Amino acid sequence: MISNAVILIIAIFGLLLLILACQRLFRARFLAAGGSAFTGSLFLAVAALLFVVSLNLRTYAQLTLERPVAEIVFEQRGPQTFNATLTQVPNGEIQMFVLSGDEWQLDARVLKWKGWANLFGLDAQYRLERVSGRYRDIAQERTAERTVYPLAENPGLDLWQLTLDKPDRLPFVDAVYGNAAYMPMSDGARYEVTISQTGLIARPVNAAAQQAAGSWK
């Protein structure tokens, strides 16, 4: 994550250079004033760019070893209809959804950095993107009601989309990719979702989920 202190130092340095440019302009040192103004403006532009990038990266979490990211619990309310309670880890945010289908799916975005970027603290990062219901039968998947819910906002400069549109412009980004995990829905089933460098992993954690997963295979 880009440090706020680094951004602040760059911005302050830029402001100091602009103040110095004003002083030199007042003393009729036009060439020196122009150089200070240009450099100060450049530093402020860099600080602004880092700020909007950092704002977007704050929607991601750092990814090192495998770690839990969510728990999801189901309560059946009708044929192929379930109440789903998703608890994100570690922030504890709880979200409730109604999912239609036989299976649930959780999607995530992953950003991986070049090796040299890791030296500046830029570990691989992830962001839970959306949760949805899906049907086991392909024909039903094409025609039946779809239920899809977003899990994240996207403020600031979207590095994900920028990397896809102009991959050569961001040399510090190694890869961006989407990843998903899905398992069967069942009344009372509880699943834990973890993430590693290879992506999302869903595991049943109670008997209802284990029975559903066992029959699903």
From TrEMBL:
Q: What name does UniProt use for this protein?
A: Cation/multidrug efflux pump
- Native organism is Steroidobacter flavus
Provide the alphabetized UniProt keywords.
Membrane, Transmembrane, Transmembrane helix
Instruction: Give TM regions.
Output: 37-57
